[in-house]
Structure formats: structure tokens, C-alpha cells
């Protein structure tokens, strides 16, 4: 006989671990399933750090209230677990004189009264000697922003959910689900389970879970690098170097974090190949390392030392880079929670909360129409 739960969560990465924690806090009998053992390095949530900032330049009216709620929830999770999930490093946005990123973030910090400083290129280089940005560039520093620790965050939220009674099964891929009277039946490699509702938070694999619903998503290979500074390692430590996002030319972004012990972490946002989520990803090529070194040599020249390590990660992109957090079009007891398009981690506590609300039949005031599934399905049903 199948085991029965109130809710099943498929995928316990950033989004699913959060949803499971919210459900268990509400006393809902929940089962969380994952094909691997989270936290792991096969999805979208590994690599030591994720940026969290309020100075959103991308649709701030939607995302600033969400990040504000997430910050409350991140503090709550840290307090409940006693673990460090967030470190305030400051986040510096650097662009040329015409940078849309910096001008839009300037509007956001004024509209939402976010503590900030405007810095010229010279001021950045003087204050943070890790950088050598052009004197004509312009920057905004958000001193209270920083980084989250993704692996610890996922592990902690799963543990807190289990402490409150959630059941979890790892290394148990979901093979299929079917709607049935009163709920849903889920088949894994090991067993069959039943539940009233289902949350599909499978990251890069979400399209495989809803084969009848065409989702215009693409999975993009992303590379992460950790470099050892050539000199003055103290310039690259938290406190001396903020986390940064740099716009070297219009619409092109690279970002990085100070050295937390394994080197200065840097990456290029997007510009990766589209991949199959089941592929292990091609090895990183010397040309890809070279492209990263070119940017370092221009903007953080002393960071361009020994390559200590590199990793491949994945973005699951929607065409408009907004998420999908919505009920299934035919089965309102099934919630899709995905497509975090390379900027979802910071929001995962509130996204899990919104998904838990949806399965309870409640629509959170923070649930934006920007996350609706219908925006992609018009004409296809
Ligand atoms: C390189 C990189 C840098 C990023 N930087 C930032 C940043 O600075 N700030 C920020 O806010 N966001 C950032 N992001 C985005 C953020 O990390 C992602 O949006 C977020 O981690 C996605 O979480 P997820 O839960 O959707 O996916 P995942 O964490 O990958 O979780 C999906 C889970 O589903 C499981 N699963 C899949 N299929 C099945 C199945 N059939 N059965 C059972 N389990 C299944 C997988 O094993 C996995 O554990 C970055 C992403 C990358 C890749």
C-alpha cells in the first residue's frame, strides 16, 4: 500500500527545502524527495556563496518586497538553527557612465530608502585596492548586502523540517506522477506515495516533470572560478573587498566574492551553452578560463593568480527571467516552483512560503503575476 502524506515536495534544493520547512512549521505532514543527497553539486545551488542585495535593478517593484521578506526569513532560520547563513560583505555595483544597472539601482535605493553610497571609479580603487576600475566608471555600494551560504542553507532547512516531523527520502528520483481522486500519486525508483498536493521544485529538471505542459525553459551551463591573488592577499578578504557585480559593457555582467579561504570567487553571468539537465557538463576549457582571466586582468588584476578550483553549475532560464511559481493549469493541487533564472537563491525562503500558501489555497500578497505560468501558455492549451 502507498504511504500517504498531505503534501509531497519533489526536489529539495533551494526552493524545495524551503517549501518543506514552511509546510512542517504549519504542522502539515510532508514528504520531501530528491534524486541526489542535498546539498549536492549536480543542480543550481552549489559553489559556496550567493549574492543577496536589496538594490535590485531588475523589476525592483516586484523583487525588493520579496527580498525584504526573505531577509526576515533568513534571520529566522539562522536564529532557529544557530548557524551562519548570511555574511554582510557589502555589495558593490560597478558600471560605466551609461550603465543601466547603476542608474536603475540608483532609482531603487532612493525609492526604497536603501542605505547606500555612490562612489566614483577613483574612490572605489582607493577604498578597495582589490579593484582597478576605470576612473570614469560609477558605482553604488550597498553596505548591508552580502552573501548567503547555499549548501548550509539547504542542509539547515531540511534539518529544521525533519525536526518538525517532515519525512525525507534521498537518492530516490521521482519517475512520474498522476492525478487521482483526492490528490496525486507519485512513483519513484523505490516506491509509490500519495498526497493531497504536490510541489514540483525540481530546478533544471522541471520540464521533465510536466511533459504535457510545454515550458519555454532552457538550462544554461555556468562556470565558477576561485583564483589565488598574486599579491596582497589581505586586499581580497571580507572587510577589505566587497562582493561585486561589474557591467564591463552594456548588458554584460561578471560578479565575484571576497576570498573566504579558497580564493577570490568570480564568474560571468549567462553567456553559457544550453545543456541537457542530465548531462554532467563538459569540462571547463582553457579558453573559458582565459575569458575569465581577461576580465580579471582589467578589473581585479592582482586577483589573476593561480586558479585554485572551478565548478560547473546550471541556470534554469525563463524567456523573461522571472520565475514560475504557480498552480498547474489542469491540476490546482499541483504547484510548480522553478525557473529561477540565475537570481533565485536569495528569494528561496519567501518562494517556499508562497508555494506552501498555494497548496493551502491562499494567495500571498507577494505572489506576483510576473510568476504566472499562463504568461507562457497562451495559445498552447
Ligand atoms: C553559478 C550560479 C550562481 C548564482 N548566483 C546567484 C546569486 O548570486 N544570487 C541568487 O539569488 N541566485 C543565484 N543563483 C540562482 C540560484 O542559485 C538558483 O535560482 C537556485 O539555487 C535554484 O534553486 P532550485 O531549488 O530551483 O534548484 P536546485 O537547488 O538545483 O534544486 C532542484 C532539486 O531537484 C532535485 N530533482 C530534480 N529532479 C528530480 C526528480 N525527478 N526527483 C527527485 N528530485 C529531483 C535535484 O536533485 C535538486 O536537488 C545562481 C545560480 C548559479 C548556477
Secondary-structure blueprint:
Layout: E1 3-10, H1 14-25, E2 30-33, E3 50-52, H2 60-81, E4 86-88, E5 91-95, H3 100-111, E6 117-120, H4 121-127, E7 138-142, E8 146-148, H5 150-163, E9 167-169, E10 174-180, E11 183-188, E12 192-200, H6 206-209, E13 218-227, E14 243-249, E15 252-257, E16 264-269, H7 286-299, E17 307-317, E18 324-327, E19 334-338, H8 348-359, H9 374-377
Parallel strand pairs: 1-2, 1-12, 2-9, 5-14, 12-19
Antiparallel strand pairs: 3-8, 4-8, 5-7, 6-7, 10-11, 11-12, 13-16, 13-17, 14-15, 15-16, 18-19
The structure holds flavin-adenine dinucleotide.
Explain what the structure shows.
- Strands 1, 2, 9, 10, 11, 12, 18 and 19 form an 8-stranded mixed beta sheet that branches. Strands 6-7-5-14-15-16-13-17 form an 8-stranded mixed beta sheet, sandwiched between helices.
- The protein has 9 helices and 19 strands.
- The chain is an alpha+beta fold and 381 residues long.
- The protein has 2 domains: 167 residues, FAD/NAD(P)-binding domain (3-Layer(bba) Sandwich); 171 residues, D-Amino Acid Oxidase, subunit A, domain 2 (D-Amino Acid Oxidase, Chain A, domain 2, 2-Layer Sandwich), CATH 3.30.9.10.
- It is globular, with a radius of gyration of 21 Å.
- The chain binds flavin-adenine dinucleotide.
CATH topology of the largest domain: D-Amino Acid Oxidase, Chain A, domain 2
**Domains, number:** 2
What's the shape?
Answer: globular
Q: Please state the average pLDDT score.
A: 96
Helical coverage, percent range: 25-40%
The parts where pLDDT drops under 50 for at least 5 residues are none
- Rounded to an integer, what's the Rg over CA atoms? 21 Å
CATH C-level of the largest domain:
Alpha Beta
Strand content: 25-35%
State the order of secondary-structure elements, H for helix, E for strand: EHEEHEEHEHEEHEEEEHEEEEHEEEHH
> What is the CATH superfamily of the largest domain?
D-Amino Acid Oxidase, subunit A, domain 2
* Biggest sheet details: 8 strands, mixed
Amino acid at each position: 500500500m502507498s504511504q500517504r502524506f498531505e503534501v509531497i515536495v519533489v526536489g529539495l534544493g533551494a526552493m524545495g527545502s524551503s517549501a518543506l520547512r514552511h509546510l512542517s512549521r504549519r504542522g502539515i505532514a510532508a514528504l520531501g524527495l530528491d534524486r541526489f543527497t542535498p546539498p549536492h553539486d549536480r543542480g543550481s545551488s552549489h559553489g559556496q556563496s550567493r549574492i543577496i542585495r536589496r538594490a535590485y535593478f531588475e523589476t525592483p517593484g516586484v523583487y525588493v518586497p520579496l527580498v525584504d521578506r526573505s531577509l526576515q526569513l533568513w534571520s529566522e532560520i539562522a536564529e532557529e538553527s544557530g548557524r551562519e547563513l548570511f555574511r554582510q560583505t557589502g555589495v558593490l555595483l560597478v558600471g560605466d557612465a551609461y550603465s543601466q544597472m547603476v542608474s536603475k539601482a540608483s532609482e531603487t535605493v532612493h525609492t526604497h530608502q536603501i542605505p547606500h553610497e555612490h562612489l566614483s571609479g577613483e574612490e572605489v580603487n582607493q577604498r578597495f585596492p582589490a579593484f582597478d576600475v576605470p576612473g570614469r566608471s560609477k558605482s553604488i555600494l550597498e553596505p548591508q548586502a552580502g552573501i548567503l551560504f547555499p549548501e548550509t542553507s539547504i542542509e539547515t532547512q531540511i534539518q529544521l523540517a525533519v525536526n518538525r516531523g517532515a519525512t525525507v527520502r534521498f537518492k530516490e528520483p521521482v519517475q512520474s506522477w498522476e492525478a487521482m481522486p483526492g490528490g496525486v500519486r507519485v512513483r519513484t525508483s523505490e516506491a509509490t506515495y500519495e498526497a493531497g498536493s504536490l510541489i514540483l521544485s525540481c530546478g533544471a529538471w522541471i520540464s521533465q516533470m510536466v511533459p504535457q505542459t510545454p515550458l519555454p525553459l532552457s538550462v544554461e551551463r555556468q562556470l565558477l572560478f576561485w583564483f589565488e591573488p598574486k599579491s596582497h592577499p589581505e586586499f581580497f578578504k571580507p572587510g577589505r573587498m566587497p562582493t561585486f557585480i561589474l557591467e564591463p559593457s552594456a548588458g554584460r555582467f561578471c560578479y565575484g566574492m571576497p576570498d573566504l579561504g579558497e580564493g577570490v570567487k568570480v564568474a560571468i553571468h549567462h553567456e553559457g551553452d544550453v545543456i541537457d539537465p542530465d548531462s554532467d557538463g563538459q569540462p571547463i576549457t582553457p579558453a573559458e578560463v582565459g575569458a575569465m582571466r581577461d576580465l580579471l586582468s582589467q578589473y581585479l588584476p592582482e586577483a589573476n593568480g593561480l586558479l585554485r578550483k572551478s565548478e560547473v553549475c546550471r541556470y534554469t532560464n525563463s524567456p523573461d527571467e522571472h520565475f514560475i511559481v504557480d498552480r498547474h493549469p489542469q491540476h490546482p493541487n499541483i504547484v510548480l516552483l522553478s525557473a529561477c533564472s540565475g537570481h533565485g537563491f536569495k528569494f528561496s525562503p519567501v518562494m517556499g512560503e508562497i508555494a506552501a500558501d498555494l497548496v493551502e489555497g491562499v494567495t500571498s500578497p507577494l505572489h506576483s503575476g510576473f510568476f504566472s505560468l499562463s504568461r507562457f501558455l497562451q495559445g498552447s492549451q
